[in-house]
Design goal:
With 530 residues, the protein is of the alpha/beta class. The chain is built from 18 helices and 13 strands. The strands form 3 sheets. The chain has a 6-stranded mixed beta sheet, sandwiched between helices. It has a 5-stranded mixed beta sheet with strand order 5-4-3-6-7, sandwiched between helices.
């Protein structure tokens, strides 16, 4: 029989138990000296004598001293007065040394416990001094009847996969640390497919730290190609997402904000009427930007990914309703704003939503894929731009490369890395060779809609759009062949923030502060005008 306290040991007989009740308790002098689980020492004579004792219960065991072996139970006993005095004297003597260490250890445990609680609520720890409340915390509080609280209630579904919700961001906010001494800037981009918000503050020269962010797939341009108008359902989805953004902006002291709308609102007959409704229901006043402005903002947002050794770049942003392309030539005197080096640019009136609606995004065959590529190539043929070899030295691998900023290229990167879940830290800034891009496109083309939807880096919300984006990418690669392409998980919002901060001169005047310890964790967005 196995004793859970003492290891392999027979139970005591009934007679021994009776003897213990009569006061024959063993001496405490050997307490703690025998290790738990250590077999008792017995002589062979004692063992045979016990076996032949003739008692009706289990045989009584004796140790080498002749004392009966009794089962020990762990008890808390009061220590003798002498022992207590000795222990007390030792504690008093060492209190000056142990107390500070205990306090520091206790403080560390409390801090670690607090961080674990925050991780459980929001998925990542908040930086020190962050005043932003986790989404889960907002969700459980009483909801007063006003627009801001209603928008917060909207966030309770952030971690569930609702239709038209971006699986990669889950439609919720995340915080990367907040420094109350630095000003806040906000940028909102309402595109054909997504509604995105960033709130950030400047840090080191040319960089910023994200304080809050929001992203949700709204498909504002759904059906726009066929009707020329924004549908009622698409506008309703977009306004619900904008209400969440409005609530976030109201809880912050924002120094400067810029809210933009792009191709869907720009091309729709009822685009202006939609923006009036947005202002009435959310209080947000959005501006419709031009295609040239959109191209410049995309370049500004990705400027930190263009190295000093690069001589020329073709940067493209494949959107939902349009695709912007900028040719950048960098001379010896590089400006602090990369957008100043744009030599040629164009905006194609086609994006992943419009192209997939025309050719079908669910069941894509090699023939229909090639038809999409040819359509985009026809649009690019009217773009008057010199050949890339006229811009730099051919054969120089650092001289020219492509930069892609869109859901299409980030999806290709995630599939290439076989990520179990999309991770911006591993995708943003990743280099892909020309052969790797071709292999990923062929892999996606071999999958049916169900397989694409099951991939964690695509999901059901993008499964019908990703191949249309690959077709646009393929047309760009055929026009500007390159050995390398860099992936950028950034775009218009980062460009807006960079421009606003540069216009205010926050970096030039040295007003930006160094990031706080632990406030630049994984996945943080950073811009760089260099």
């Amino acid at each position: 029989m196995r004793d859970p306290d003492s290891g392999e040991q027979p139970s005591v007989s009934g007679a021994s138990a009776a003897g213990r009740n009569e006061g024959q308790t063993p001496s405490r002098s050997g307490k703690g000296k025998r290790r738990r689980g250590k077999p008792s020492r017995m002589t062979s004579a004692n063992a045979s004598s016990s076996a032949n004792s003739g008692e009706t219960g289990r045989p009584e065991l004796k140790d080498a001293t002749g004392e009966p072996v009794r089962k020990r139970k762990r008890r808390r006993r009061a220590k003798s007065g002498a022992v207590q005095q000795a222990v007390s004297a030792r504690v008093v003597a060492d209190v000056s040394v142990t107390k500070p260490a205990a306090s520091a250890d206790q403080s560390s445990r409390k801090r670690n416990k607090k961080n674990r609680q925050r991780r459980s609520l929001q998925g990542r720890p908040l930086g020190g001094g962050d005043k932003a409340r986790p989404v889960a915390e907002v969700a459980v509080k009483p909801q007063p009847q006003n627009m801001a609280s209603a928008a917060r209630a909207e966030e309770r579904t952030a971690f569930s996969q609702k239709p038209h919700e971006d699986r990669r961001s889950n439609g919720h906010a995340f915080s990367h640390g907040f420094d109350s001494g630095s000003p806040l800037y906000a940028a909102l981009d309402l595109g054909t497919n997504n509604c995105r918000l960033l709130i950030a503050q400047p840090t080191r020269p040319g960089q910023f730290r994200v304080v809050d962010a929001f992203s949700r797939i709204v498909r504002l341009g759904e059906g726009l190609g066929a009707s020329g108008r924004l549908s009622q359902d698409a506008m309703d989805r977009s306004i619900e997402a904008l209400k969440v953004c409005a609530a976030k902006l109201k809880t912050r002291d924002i120094r400067k904000t810029r809210l933009i709308a792009t191709e869907a609102t720009r091309a729709a007959e009822n685009g202006e009427a939609f923006l009036e409704r947005v202002l009435e229901e959310t209080g947000l006043e959005l501006e419709i930007i031009t295609r040239e402005t959109e191209a410049r903002l995309a370049v500004s947002g990705c400027s930190s990914l263009v190295g000093r050794e690069t001589k020329s770049v073709v940067l493209f942003d494949i959107g939902g309703g349009s695709s912007e392309i900028a040719v950048i030539k960098i001379g010896e005197n590089r400006s602090s704003r990369l957008a100043n080096h744009i030599t040629h640019w164009t905006s194609l009136p086609v994006g992943v939503v419009t192209l997939s609606e025309r050719h079908g995004g669910q069941d894509v065959t090699p023939e229909s894929f090639e038809a999409m590529v040819c359509e985009v190539q026809g649009m690019l043929s009217g773009f008057d731009c010199p050949e890339i070899h006229a811009l730099d030295n051919p054969g120089d691998e650092n001289g020219f490369h492509l930069i892609g900023t869109s859901g299409t290229v980030t999806t290709l990167a995630g599939v290439h890395l076989d990520l179990p879940r999309y991770d911006r830290r591993k995708v943003d800034g990743l280099w892909l060779s020309d052969d790797e891009v071709s292999a990923m496109q062929a892999r996606l083309l071999s999958w049916d809609f169900t397989a694409r939807a099951a991939n964690p880096c695509i999901g059901p919300d993008r499964a019908d759009l990703v191949l249309a984006g690959c077709a646009i990418l393929e047309a760009i690669r055929r026009r500007w062949p390159s050995e390398r392409m860099r992936v950028a998980d950034r775009g218009l919002r980062e460009g807006l923030l960079t421009d606003m901060m540069a216009d205010d001169g926050v970096w030039r005047r040295g007003r930006a502060r160094r990031p706080m310890r632990g406030s630049a964790p994984h996945g943080s967005h950073e811009g760089n005008t260099q």
